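Q: Convert this sequence to structure tokens.
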Amino acid sequence: MKPPTLCEVLRTFGNDQSCREYLEALRWPDRVTCPRCQSVKTSRVYDRKVFDCDSCRYQFSVLAGTIFQDTKLPLATWFATTYLMCEARKGVSANQIKRMIGGSYKTSWYLCHRIRAAMKEVNPQPLDGTVEMDETWVGGRERNPHGAGRIPYSESKKVPVIGIKQRGGELRFFHAEDTKSGTLAKYIRENVSGDVDVIMTDDWGAYPGAMRKAGVSPARHKTVNHSAKVYVDGDITTNGIESAFSLLKRGIVGSWHKISAKHLSAYLDEMTFRFNNRQNPYLFRDTMQKLIEAPVLEYKNLIAA
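A:
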């Protein structure tokens, strides 16, 4: 099955009624259920677009208790923006969304962040088999004021991102505090299966200690020596995770242009979700399902320190 095109989405979900019907089918595939008492004995109040629970007399709409509750934006705008964020391989900026759907930049920025928050994976399965792990630094270009070349990462305002990818499987990105062995070990323990076949990394000096702290035996840790400009040694390589990093940086440079450290994790979650679902023909549907189930992200919490 081919994923829908933008024209098909706009044509199918161009009004409030069609959007509500689609959300109803996703939220209640069998029977409409009262969100308060879970009763299926409900009646539809057509002229008010709500349901009435025959058991507890609670009246609710398909938007009740979801991210769409109390939204002032048309549902068609939500659907179109969600589609654009799903299908843009390198992401789409809030400024671009503003130009395409209208309204203010603040509205578009908040809308994108609410969709982005819903994309975050909950309780993902541990990575197994052959796993590649690497780290990179993102942020503005900085020059050394005391001499030629760039300043060391230890003195830079760039922030580290740790990437872990299972070959033929899923990807994980994390905004980390540093790239020390203890930090790397933490992400290995939390995201890699205890009986992983092999973890492949470059020759960064913190990895042997990280593997030891995470309980990974030296026999299951393979290294490719990037310092000696060796990038493939048989089947030992980190080209898979570095390719994912390249896509991330193209998104930062070409689409988002600038990301604050405060919100970096949200953008990493979006990129991870889209990468892991790049072959999913039902990506739009699955994302709309996550929007229904996701907790509401309030603006005051989004901008809080």
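Residues 239-256 form the longest helix (18 residues).
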